[in-house]
Amino acid sequence: MKLGEEIAQRLAFGQALVELGAEKPNMLVLDADVGPSTQTQLFGHAFPDRFIEVGIAEQNMIGIAAGLSTLGFIPWVSTFAVFMTKRAGDQIRNSVAHTKANVKINGAYGGLPTGRAGATHSAVEDLAVMRAMPNVIVMDPADPQEALVCARLAMEIEGPVYVRTVRCSVPVIFPEDHKIEIGKAVKLHEGKDIAIISCGMMTPRVLKAAEELEKKGISAQVLHMATIKPIDVEAICDAAESIGKIITVENHSIIGGLGGAVCEVVSEFAPCHVKRLGFPDVFLESGDDEAYFHRFGLDIDGIASTAKSLAEERRRTKNVH
Amino acid sequence: MDDKTLYRLDSIARQLRRLIIETAHTAGAGHTGGSLSEVEILTALYFSFLNIDPEHPDWEDRDRFVLSKGHASLGYYAALAQRGYFPIEELKTFDREDSALQAHPDMHKCKGVDFSTGSLGQGLSIGVGIALGALKKNKRIRTIVLLGDGECQEGQIWEAAMFAGSKHIAKLIAIVDYNKVQLSNRVDENISLEPFAIKWEAFGWNVLSVDGHDIAELLSALSQADYMSEQGPVAIIANTIKGKGVSFMEGKFEWHGKAPNDQEYIEALKELSLR
Fold first, then answer.
1. Which of A106, A116, A145, B123 sits at a 20 to 30 Å CA gap from A199?
2. Smallest CA–CA separation between B268 and chain A, in Å?
3. What is this structure's pTM?
4. ipTM at complex level
5. Known catalytic residue: A58?
């Protein structure tokens, strides 16, 4: 993967599964009839004996994976995040999270980009649901490279991991030797005027926004959270204490996801103003992804403009006192 | 099956019923009705059919058992204790804080529990996964799932049934404790499962129907199912009576999730010792 190259994250994740499958003979992939969409079909082509098509039956898929895990297999379950986390939410909770089953969950088509499928297919609350479940590690990789890194890390962890991926193309921002640690933020840009904390596919555009801001004389600290749970409490508190104004940016509802997690940390340990950028409390509709990202201030200009106004507000407040 | 063996198994079943009543009474909690209905099924499994070793509960090649109707843990714990997985004395801790014997079975707390259950409708999928894994590993282990009848109203049961039937999953046996009564009412007055056997057959399963309180009949069905399951999944519909063995509990949905009070406890034990 070349830096700056735009690659469909679903394709990158599908290829990542093939790469990992070649390394781990006990890895299986289960899919609920969306393999050609989510690209888990690549694993099916490479390892037909280790790909289990369960049909449109997400609840059963989770149970089968949990059962398989008791015999030493490491099953990945994959379907659209919206159905994975709600249709099969109780199965994930009781058969996987509570039992600490060694099952890896790919919430594909995370957030808004679903190929214009609209309200029923967009997963705006999957991070909130998964974050609330004990024993589950929740990851939202930023780019195709990190999707592979997260998938590999998930295989090394004993227990349930939720890895959210998106359908659309995302520019590669991380080099091939990129590494992440569970519960550790990745600082991508130094700054002192405003802190921007982002996750998933929003991080590459937050980086662009930070570059735009720099041209305008505003320095933004950018923290990328590859793991939403556990979250990096220390990095959030440092940003809150040193900068005092935080923007969270996510391809998710502003309720319960990254913004929620950051607010929980800040309100308890380092109170400061947090502006949450994400989807407001509404169902999304069908149409063009970028049109909606623009509407909710989640494009580069929108993020830069929110950051600019908050940075200016911060300066004014500092001058007053 | 010789008379001596049957007599031994019958005494065990009677002992399990007493343990269920005692445990429920001590705890003041538990699902008495559905635990009493599964007693002969558990006796046939744990004291004859299953290839297990209580000294080595994690033995890799053991048969697996999943109590999909996880609320009927009183019966399950009684059977596990009687079989030697943990001391019978421990039953007194049932449903207490920090006990290994949680209200619903927890595989990480209780020895002998192959998978945690409680949320109804999930156990058959687990069993399918285990059976599929065993096939992939070429292991000759058998997977038995005990289902409640009420939970067969859950869609997931039929997702799992469709998968197992369609893929001819071998060495998988589902037993339904068909006691005809669920939490709030008679099953057929809520949502009827009938024609029940035909449903399983339509989903690609071989079906056997037995008197679920007749241990000899259960063992013969299990042996037949064991043979038949080489080709694909087998369902055993065990016709039972909820609250079996205690006259005032039999067939009553009110005894689904209730423990006997002091008076009921004495009466229940009296009835059980007269049997």
1. A116
2. 34
3. 0.97
4. 0.98
5. yes
